[in-house]
Automatic annotation (TrEMBL):
Organism of origin: Hymenobacter aerilatus
Gene Ontology molecular functions: gluconate transmembrane transporter activity
Protein name: GntP family permease
Subcellular location(s) per record: Cell membrane
Membrane topology: Multi-pass membrane protein
Keyword list, A-Z: Cell membrane, Membrane, Transmembrane, Transmembrane helix, Transport
A single GO cellular-component term on record: plasma membrane
Length: 434
């Protein structure tokens, strides 16, 4: 019954948005209330759950998304994004630009959370698309597939790292196995699949297109350093604790927080791409204000998707679904993947799907002596399946790339399904040899 209610709510959400033409923010809130009532939550608790879901989701993302939009807008307005695009195009050429995007997404995706990587890379995607008249989804989806795979499969991302701990797996072996699965998965779900989507018309956010050519553009080195500064800071903060004996460990712990990193990156960009290039402070602040206005509705939609996720979690729906699946007669790796995939489809959060599955599959893991490193990857792959209207990543892609719900399902959702399905295939093949 729980699965039926959740599926009905998801169908209702799709109908409200696609057929009813209701704003996604409003539709999410309506369905969240309906879901809470149908799942038997105390009526007084439903608003609290909605508020908590929005707060938790936006609390971790709003600073990153706002600063990311500011940085992206300044990169575009200053001419730095054009410099980046030109350098990539010169190095790889139009024929291999997809592979340049894949490499960038994979390298940047390893140390970064998905949301941060997305907002940092989107301006680069759009800059290449605008400057060289290439389809944005054709060049963008390969990069985002690399980001998604690193988010779901590879430590040190939160979900796979937590799974490593819960399954008592080996971090190094999991990373090596994950790389073996990740590379072919990215190739198929990214560049190869994106070649089938050239017919999708995407009009990306104008926020990342320079309105007029920059009069005094920055140099290529300055452009690359400013754009990659968040990545460099996060990598430095991640590796610093392992360099024993060095001072300022607590300071580095502070500077390694994503919100602080983005603040520092925007502060540096204000000088390197703004003041240094002859812009006044009021002009720079006007650019930042426009950037935040451009993503305001995106923030509301993402927050509302978090509200629905929280209602489904607080109502016990995710746990009930997992318990029903626990007795299905399947090989442990396939069962772990399936549990995570179904919870992801119902709840919309890859992290919630992975961690919920972990608590229920761990006893079976010990009984069957299944390789824990492979189980981390199987659950991680399952947690990426079935991204649709209840997933904040779905709405990030839709709103930034400015495509319809139908085309988002055709591109983003299918890409995520390929990532999850190919991930399971790779895990099962590895299981034959390790």
């Amino acid at each position: 019954m729980t699965i039926t209610i959740v599926l009905l709510c998801i169908v209702g959400l799709v109908l409200l948005i696609a057929l009813g033409k209701i704003n996604a923010f409003v539709a999410f809130l309506l369905i969240s209330v309906v879901a809470g009532v149908l799942l038997g939550m105390p009526l007084a608790d439903i608003p609290k759950s909605i508020e908590k879901g929005m707060g938790d989701t936006l609390g971790s993302l709003v600073i990153i998304l706002c600063f990311g939009a500011m940085l992206g807008k300044l990169l575009a307005e200053s001419g730095a994004a054009e410099k980046l695009a030109a350098a990539l195009m010169q190095a790889f050429g139009p024929r291999y630009i997809q592979w340049a995007m894949v490499v960038a997404g994979f390298v940047i995706g390893i140390p970064l959370f998905y949301g941060i990587g997305f907002v940092l890379l989107v301006p680069l995607i759009f800059s290449v698309a605008y400057q060289y008249k290439l389809p944005a989804i054709y060049i963008g989806l390969p990069m985002l597939s690399a980001l998604s795979v690193t988010h779901g499969f590879l430590p040190p991302h939160p979900s796979p790292t937590a799974l490593v701990v819960q399954f008592d797996a080996n971090m190094g072996q999991t990373l090596l196995y994950g790389l073996a699965v990740a590379i072919p998965t990215i190739i198929i779900a990214g560049p190869l699949f994106a070649r089938t989507l050239t017919g999708i018309v995407s009009r990306p956010l104008q926020a990342f297109a320079a309105t007029t050519p920059a009069a005094n553009p920055p140099g290529t080195a300055n452009s690359f350093f400013t754009a990659l500064l968040p990545v460099l800071l996060l990598m430095l903060a991640a590796g610093y604790p392992f360099l024993t004996g060095l001072p300022f460990q607590r300071v580095m712990a502070l500077l390694g927080q994503p919100s602080i990193v983005m603040l520092l990156a925007v502060a540096y960009a204000t000088y390197s791409l703004g003041l240094k290039q002859g812009r006044t402070m009021p002009q720079i602040m006007a650019i930042y204000a426009d950037a935040v206005k451009d993503i305001s509705m995106i923030l509301l939609i993402i927050g509302a998707s978090g509200a629905l996720k929280q209602v489904l979690t607080d109502s016990g729906a995710s746990l009930a679904i997992a318990e029903q699946l626990q007795h299905v007669a399947l090989p442990p790796l396939v069962l772990g993947w399936l549990m995570a995939a179904i919870i992801r489809a119902c709840v919309g959060s890859a992290t919630v799907a992975g961690l919920t599955t972990a608590g229920l599959i761990a006893p079976l893991l010990q009984q069957t002596h299944t390789n824990p490193n492979l189980m981390v990857l199987a659950v991680g792959a399952g947690s990426l399946m079935f991204s649709h209207v209840n997933d904040s990543g779905f709405w990030l892609f839709k709103e930034y790339f400015n495509v319809s719900v139908k085309d988002t399902l055709r591109s983003w959702s299918v890409m995520e399904a390929l990532v999850g399905g190919l991930g399971l295939v790779g895990v099962l093949l590895l299981d034959l040899f390790v």
